[in-house]
Specification:
mainly beta; Methylamine Dehydrogenase, Chain H; 1 helix; 45% strand; globular; WD40_repeat_dom_sf; WD repeat-containing protein 79; WD repeat; WD40_rpt
Length: 390
């Protein structure tokens, strides 16, 4: 993989401009297979050079950011849409539950370029982002010494540990020591979602299938319960810490509310936001690095954008109808005004005719420009000239 980055870009936040309509930059489309190969969210790498997505039944795929998007403050509206082709593909068999990038990933150092993934009836795998090779595995076992699959997975903020959610506990592996050595933190319900705080190393939020969120502090192999948050109607599927660690945003399955928790006064929501989420499927949220913009997908195919920089409940800043099917994944680029989205969902069979209740699906990975836009002067001159000749 050829990663060319500008080191100075890491020092600044992306200048998102959610005043204009989004401009499509690149797209990859999967066929409408009978066995439903829909996407399961998408995630930008920490250094912003590539995008990772999971396709149900069709493995894991890494896509590079088009080279012309690395620089420039504006984008011409006449820019053609790039076809996206995977730089690395891993034909992982079975259903993949969760995945995450190594937080110290830097394309200039190939050793850091990897991601972890957990799947059905298997251990946690660590995959090489350059070659697609399997580097190592982390194996969790239940109380009868049977290999158990992790439901959720995330790295600690410093990348030293991997937190894995299971049905009865959270297991913590040392990243540098693959195998079956781990410590456990018992949970009352299956840990369906995990996220680590960047501002407070060792603090991890554990979301469960029973609609509860528990904050714990982990250091030196010991755990300390901090608080428990309740308020969602369904099991927790997505969470995001603010950069300063004072807020936690959470969403749940079949729950139209995104709750913002003020962790300085835990237990009481700061405000709630509304989106369309009428499915058990994960509909992800993402927060910009500067903490200003919160974005969420929806089962209606729309991406909603809120300015959450204040301490009051914001109204929807912009609603972007980007997809014709469920938009299950959103990911804001770390230093460029680019939004990645993933679409697709499971469509049930008609029990009488054994056919899907829809005729077309949109299983797509798309990159959108959400920064400043500029009309192409040459194209504009051509349009004016053609209009004058008619």
């Amino acid at each position: 993989m050829n990663f060319s980055t500008l080191e100075s870009s890491y020092l600044a936040y992306a200048h998102y401009n959610f005043e204009n309509t989004s401009l499509e930059l690149a797209r990859c489309q999967w066929p409408n297979y009978d066995d439903q190969h829909y996407l399961r969210c998408c995630k930008w790498s920490p250094d912003g050079t590539c995008l990772l997505t999971i396709v149900r039944g069709a493995g894991m795929h890494v896509f590079e950011l088009p080279t012309d998007i690395y620089t420039g403050d504006t984008m011409l509206t006449s820019r053609p849409v790039n076809p996206l082709n995977p730089a690395v593909s891993v034909p992982e068999s079975g259903l993949i539950y969760d995945y995450c990038w190594y937080p110290g990933m830097n394309s200039a150092n190939p050793a850091t370029c990897c991601w972890a993934a957990s799947g059905h009836e298997g251990p946690i795998h660590l995959w090489d982002a350059f070659t697609g090779d399997l580097r190592c595995t982390y194996r969790g076992y239940n109380n009868v010494d049977e290999l158990e699959a992790a439901i959720s997975v995330t790295f600690s903020a410093d990348g030293q540990n991997i937190f894995c959610g299971y049905k009865k506990n959270v297991k913590i592996f040392s990243t540098g020591r693959p195998g079956r050595e781990y410590v456990e933190y018992p949970t009352q319900y299956p840990a369906s979602c995990l996220v680590a705080s960047l501002a407070q190393p060792g603090v991890v939020a554990i979301g469960t299938w029973k609609n509860t969120i528990e904050l714990v502090s982990q250091s030196d192999g010991s755990f300390r319960h901090l608080c428990k948050l309740t308020g969602h109607k369904g099991g927790i599927t997505t969470m995001a810490f603010s950069l300063d660690g004072t807020r936690l945003y959470s969403g749940a399955r079949k729950d139209n509310e995104i709750i913002c928790w003020d962790l300085r006064v835990p237990g009481r929501p700061l405000f709630c936001l509304t989106r369309q989420c009428n499915t058990n499927q994960k509909i992800s949220i993402d927060l910009s690095r500067d903490g200003k913009w919160l974005v969420s997908g929806g089962t209606d195919g729309k991406v909603q954008v809120w300015d959450v920089s204040q301490n009051v409940a914001p109204t929807v800043h912009m609603e972007l109808p980007l997809h014709n099917d469920c938009c299950n994944g959103v990911s804001l680029h770390p230093y460029r005004p680019v939004l990645a989205t993933a679409s697709g969902q499971h469509h049930t069979l008609d029990p009488l005719h054994h056919t899907r209740n829809v005729m077309s699906y949109e299983n797509a990975l798309v990159m959108w420009w959400v920064g400043q836009q500029q009309e192409d002067p040459d194209l504009l001159a051509t349009i004016i000239k053609a209009a004058s000749n008619t």
